[in-house]
Amino acid sequence: MLSKRVKEFSDRAYWLKEGVLYHRGKYSDSVKENTMEAFSLAINDKLGIELDVRLSKDNEVVVIHDGNLKRVYGVDKDVSECSFKELSDYSDGKIPLLKDVLDLVDDRVGLMIEIKSNKVGVLEEKTYEILKNYRGRYVVVSFNPFSLKYFRKRDSSIIRGQLSYSYDGSGYPWLVRVCLRRLWFNFISKPHFISYGIDNCNINFLKKVRKKGYFIIGWTYKNKKNDEILKQIYDNMIVEKIEMRSFKE
Length: 249
Description:
Number of domains: 1
CATH class: Alpha Beta
Distance between the termini: 32 Å
CATH architecture: Alpha-Beta Barrel
Structural class: alpha/beta
Radius of gyration: 17 Å
Shape: globular
Number of strands: 9
Oligomer: single chain
Strand content: 15-25%
C-alpha cells in the first residue's frame, strides 16, 4: 500500500528532506561531473549527491551518466563496449567505480543512485551486491519501472524513487509518453517517492500526485526562475551549478 511506502520513506529517507542534492556531484566548468573530486566537494558542503551507474564491458559498476564518453571526455566510445581499465584510460582516471565512491562517501552524506539500464538484470544485481554491504544512507531511482521492481523483489526495504518527466522530444510513441509522464507504471515499480523533471511539467497533475502522499523531488534546478510555482509542487530539488542549501528556505 502507498501509505506504508510513504511511512517507510519518512522513516528511512528523512535526509532527502534536509537539504538539496547535487546533480552528479558538485561539478563545474573546472570539475567534471560524476567524479571523485565533484563528490568530495559535495561532501565538504554536507549536501546529498545524485549519481548514475552503468555497466562496463567487463561488468564493473561504473559511475557515469552518458552511455558514450564523447560529451564529457571527448572520446567517441560507448561505456558498454569498454573495460573499466579502458574507461579509466580514456578519462584520465576520472571515471570511478561505485564501490570506490561508497568508500569515499562513507555515510557522510546521503546518495541518490540512478540505475541506467535498459535491459534489467545484471546492472541491478551487481549494484545490489555492492550496496548490501554499505551501511550509509542511499536510495535508488530509475526511469525504468522494471529496474525498481527488481530492487523491490530483491530487498523491499530499499527506498525506491520513480523518475519521470514530460517526455517531450523523447522520440517515444505518444501512448508510451503518456503512460510514463503520468506514472501509470507505478503499479510495477511501487515507488516510495517521485523524482520529476521541472521543465514543461504538468502542474495540476503533480499537485494530485503530491496529494496522494508522495514526496516529490525535482530535477534539475539551475536557476531561481518560477520559484513560487515550483515550491507549490516540489518538496526538494536536485541542483546543478547553483549555490543554495535548502529549496524551501
